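Support request, please re-run this one:
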Amino acid sequence: MSTKGKKTLGEINIPEGTEVTKEGNILIVKGKKGKLQKDFTKIPTTMVFEEGKIIIKPPGKRKKDLALINTVRSIINNMIIGVENGFTYKLKIVFSHFPISVKVKDNQVIVDNYFGERSSRISRIVGDSTNVTVSGDDIIVKGPNLEAVSQTASNIESSTKIKNKDLRVFLDGVYVYSKEKGME
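Re-run finished. Output below.
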């Protein structure tokens, strides 16, 4: 990146086996784990494709414009990593008295018997390619889209949020304990 007298350029190398195309303001990344697309309509940057590289140009020279390049670069890098390797989040089911049971049905994760409650706590699975499995006291969320995988894990974790009790004593819930690149 150069900053002297010119607009700052952000460069991203495209690895072999990954195809990146742009249709209007939508960036499409294809790889061995799937296909991702992201709409960059509201982000005012210019993307130029050269052989094996994407060059991101800001709309101006202000600090805010230059910071925008790093945001776009990290979004595109996460898309490339996602279609190459994928992302895995692991959650642990923790309970002390009432045994919590977790089921996956359609595009929902259902937590039953949380603190002995009769009603189930339901959280939504985000994205079409996000896969959620329950094995023992672990919940494994996998997929190529980092935003969808992390939001699904967050939805599951926040569905078991404890209210009106001391959090140091009542530790029951579902908690994220591992964030990894790659899907086994």
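The chain has two helices and 13 strands. The chain has a mean pLDDT of 90.
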